[in-house]
Amino acid sequence: MSLFAMGFLLVILRPCTGQFPRACANTQSLQKKECCPLWDGDWSPCGELSNRGSCQNILLSQAPLGPQFPFSGVDDREDWPSVFYNRTCRCEGNFMGFNCGGCKFGFSGPNCTERRLNVRRNIFQLSTSEKDKFLAYLNLAKNTPVQDYVIATGTYTQMNNGTNPMFRDINVYDLFVWMHYYASRDTLLGGSNIWRDIDFAHEAPGFLPWHRVFLLMWELEIQKLTGDENFTIPYWDWRDAEDCAICTDEYMGGRHPTNPNLLSPASFFSSWQVICTHSEEYNRQEALCNATGEGPILRNPGNNDKSRTPRLPSSAEVEFCLSLTQYESGSMDKMANYSFRNTLEGFADPQTAIANISQSGLHNALHIYMNGSMSQVQGSANDPIFVLHHAFVDSIFEQWLRKHRPMLEVYPAANAPIGHNRENYMVPFIPLYRNGEFFKSSRELGYDYEYLQEPALDSFQDFLIPYLEQARQIWPWLVGAAVIGGLVTAALTGLTLSCKKKSKRTSPEIQPLLIETEDYNNISYQSNF
Fold first, then answer.
1. Which DSSP category does 274 fall into?
2. Domain limits, the chain
3. Kind and range of the H or E run holding 20
4. What does the alpha-carbon distance between residue 339 and residue 178 come to, in Å, rounded to a whole number?
C-alpha cells in the first residue's frame, strides 16, 4: 500500500503522455477542435509565456496512401487527430507534452537541457530486489488511476460531433492496453459492415517506430508514477529458448495447477482483469472498448498450433533478419518480400524473407506461442510479458539501425498503408509524433540496451551524435559544394596555366614584376568549406 499511496500522490499534476488529455475531453474543446491546455508553470496555453511552445494548426501529410484502405471520411483515426482537434501545442526546443510541460525523450532538467541515457537490461540479469521492484511497479500501474488522460468510449459521430463527449477514466497500465487496441481495431462502416484490413500499428512500416514510442511512453509513465527516473523496461531475450523461462511465479506468473489456461494463484498477475479483448462483440454493437474488465489473463505457453509456430525463434533467424538491407519493400504490408520490417514482424519467413502469412515467425511467433491473451492483436498488451517481448524486438530494430545506418529517406514517404507514411502522425498519441521521428538510434532518444553497449565508444559516440545528425542532414549540400569547388579549382588552374603561357611571351622588362615576391610554380588554389 505504501507504493500505491506514493504513486497516487506523485501522479497528481504531473504531465502525462497518452491518449485524450483530460483538459481537452469536453464539449468546448471538441467543438472548437483545439487541444492546447495550460501549463501549470505559468498558466498559459502550451507554456507560451515561458517560450515552451504555442498553440498551432496541425500540419497534415498530403502524401498518397497505399490501396489497402479504399475509404475516406469513415474512421476517426484518418489524418490523426484532425477529426477531434486541428490545433494542438507545438513545443519548442527540447520541450514535449500535450501542454509542453515535459521534456523530449533523452532530456531532463527544469529547462530540458540535460542529456540522459538509461540502459534497458535483461530481466534475468536483474537482482532479486530490482526484479521485485519491477513487478511492484507493474502492479502499482494497474491499480493507479491516470490523472491527465481519459479514453474515448464512443466515436466522434456517436459523440454528436462533440456536443456529447463520451470519455471515461482508466488506470495507468490499462491506458496503454487501450491505446494498443484503439490503434489496431477494425473500422466501423455502419450497420454490420466492418473493414478489418486496417491497422495503424502493425503490418506496415510504422510497426517498429510505433511500438518504440509506445514503450518510451510506458517507461516514462512508470518513472513519473514512482518517482524513479532511472527505471527502464527489462527485456526478455527469447532467442533459442526451449520454453517460457519467464513464465514462473518468480517472474511473470506460472501455470495454474488445475487449469493450464490460467496463471498460478501465487502470482498477483492472476488477479488482473483484461480489457478490450471482445473485438467481435464491439463490432456487432458498433461500439468501442470501454475498458470494462473481461476476465483473467489467459496464457498456455507452448500448447499452440505447431503447424503455424513450431518453436520459439532462433539466433540464426535473428541474424538472417538483420542481414536484410531493405527496411521496407513492395506493397509495404504483410505481403512484402525481403523486407526487414516484415520479416522481424513475423509475416515473412525468417530464413528466406519471403512473405508467408500461414506461418508466424520472430515477433509474431512469441505472440502465438503464448497461446492466450497475447495471441489476439487488439488485446495482447493485457499480458505484462508484452512489454518484455517488445523491448527485445525493439533491440533487434536498434541493431539493424546501427548495422545499416539508414538515412531518414529510407523510411517510406508515400504509398504505405494508411497511417504509416513517414510524416503521418501516429494513432492515438497526443502529443503528436510522426513515424519518421523515431527511425533513428535509441541513443538519440535517451536509452540503450545492455547487450548492445560498447563501453569504450559510448561516451565518444554520444558526443558525436548531434554532429553526425547535422552532417547527415547537410550531406547533399556538402557533395554539391565539393562538385562546385572542383569546377572552380579546374577553372582557376586553367586560368593560371594561361597566364603562365602569356607571361612567357611578355618582354623581359616586365617579367620580374610578376615573380618578385613568390615563385609562380608554388601558387595553388583551394576551396574551403
1. P
2. 20-452
3. strand 20-21
4. 29
Contact 102, 17 (CB under 8 A): yes
- Stretches where the chain sits below pLDDT 50 are 1-18, 456, 458-460, 463, 499-529
Which one, of 375, 319, 310, lies nearest residue 344 by Cα?
319
- DSSP alpha helix (H) spans, 67-202: 128-142, 172-184
- Would you state the cell numbers that stand for residue 304, as one nine-digit string? 499452440
CA distance 385 to 223: 19
The three grid cell numbers given for residue 6, joined into one nine-digit string: 506514493
At the fourth CATH level, the homologous superfamily of domain 20-452 is: Di-copper center containing domain from catechol oxidase (1.10.1280.10)
Q: What is the pTM of this model?
A: 0.84
> Which candidate, 316, 344, 337, 460, places its Cα nearest to that of 401?
344
Q: Quote the CA–CA distance of 142 and 218 in Å, as a whole number.
A: 12
Q: Which residues pair with 108 in a beta bridge?
A: 114
Peptide bond before residue 431 is cis, with ω within 30 degrees of 0: yes
DSSP state of 185: P
pLDDT the model gives residue 407: 97
DSSP 56: E
The pLDDT of residue 15 is 41
Q: What is the DSSP letter of 522?
A: G
pLDDT for the residue 5:
40
pLDDT in the model for residue 14: 38
The predicted pLDDT at position 477 comes to 53
The Cα–Cα gap between 529 and 474 comes to 12
Strand partners, 35: 88
Report helix, strand or coil for 255.
strand
In angstroms and rounded to an integer, the radius of gyration of the C-alpha atoms of the chain is 28
Of 237, 198, 273, nearest to 427 (Cα)?
A: 198
Under a CB-based contact definition with an 8 Å cutoff, are residues 238 and 123 in contact?
no
Which residues are registered as beta bridge partners of 122?
235
C-alpha 279/C-alpha 289 separation (Å) is 8
For residues 360, 361, 365 and 368, what is the CA-based torsion angle, rounded to 10 degrees? 0
Residue by residue, DSSP assigns 422-487 as TTPBPTT-BS--BGGGGSS-GGGGTEEEGGG--HHHHHHHHHHHHHHHHHHHHHHHHHHHHHHHHH
Question: What cell does 224 get?
Answer: 513519473
What are the Cα distances from residue 104, in Å, to 29, 111, 217, 453, 469?
25, 11, 11, 22, 17
End-to-end CA distance of the chain: give it in Å, rounded. 63
Who contacts 337 (Cβ-Cβ below 8 Å, separation ≥6)? 329, 330, 348, 353, 354, 355
Neighbours of 412 (CB within 10 A): 22
